[in-house]
């Protein structure tokens, strides 16, 4: 009898190729241990509220009123909710055709897209067109929409930074394209080398691949670096010369933990460069409510903005977005609140600033505690987390540990990370899930555990790591990078 369409051997081969390490083997092992009663600290995914970050009060008040609009008619509503939250809820409800239970336009509510355009204009110093902004269910959905439009088949390649966030490798596999890696340089604080970039494109072309787009993640995930203006200019020149679309994943733009390199958008740098580059390079930029001091991952709110994309292409992207009918409406309101924040003098402003500043300052301290903690461990070396939410230490595994991993049928850093979660309950992601240079091993952890828990977590990691190294080291000495 012939296999059925959903029998394993006959499903779409592209689905089988997809790998997604953030929820992979390690996560499954950690979940098993949790069922057995072990306390697990899930640092495998940038999920702030799951690790104890408290939601900001004002946006939740506004969305609560939008979700339950009958509260607005209650004579006591002013006792429970501040006047600015009530006003803002009415403002967003007036944009909908039937409250949060009704579909919106497939690009999102026009009023919120206008607020996003105004935010981009303030940030970059150049006006933005709401018609070129699509609201999406998280930035990931927007990335997938654009990759789907770019990739025509396996002959089409997309340049992706390695180490990379596995959304890119997974989506490129799913759409049947080819990932073209360009390696970030760990010894240069995960900087980007244009010479290496050119080499990657040449190698891909020699294999018959047409490189069509380039991804940048700024601030970096999993590597945590912030790109300088000089680096962004080099990237834009490169895209201009090579005729590439630039996909700017800028979801961590609020997460910056140093003052030397503040976040600057690829769009601002592009428009500052002036013609012909500024009106020829095709750029798509992504943002979200999941990161920053908002951390509203479960709400799934995001947007992408298109620069220099032809109107006919925009129409086609709209047509595909329409298949899903509408991005989720509560998330659109979270996006509106993020891009159009409270202003000085409004009732809830002081509380909002206190909450958001408290979260960012704590993240800055945690970035430092984690980096210092890793660097105090035997055979571990870690660049400072300049931005985003992750630490990506290099683990210098001794030859005996690599041998033991092979015997166990595991990739060496997977072997190390499984031992780590079994011993300590700290669930991380092995560097091999993000891509890394041959023979070099890492792990990625978020910097999100509660600040008061951080010393105990780092102490538990250090104890495990140093005992692991003691067990597998041959004591002939090991050089750091």
TrEMBL record:
Pathway: Photosynthesis; C4 acid pathway; Amino-acid degradation; L-alanine degradation via transaminase pathway; pyruvate from L-alanine: step 1/1
Keyword Transferase: yes
GO BP of this protein: L-alanine catabolic process; photorespiration
Secreted recorded as keyword: no
A Pfam family matched in the record: Aminotran_1_2
Cofactor entry: pyridoxal 5'-phosphate
Similarity comment text for this entry: Belongs to the class-I pyridoxal-phosphate-dependent aminotransferase family. Alanine aminotransferase subfamily.
Subunit structure: Homodimer.
Protein name: Glutamate--glyoxylate aminotransferase 2
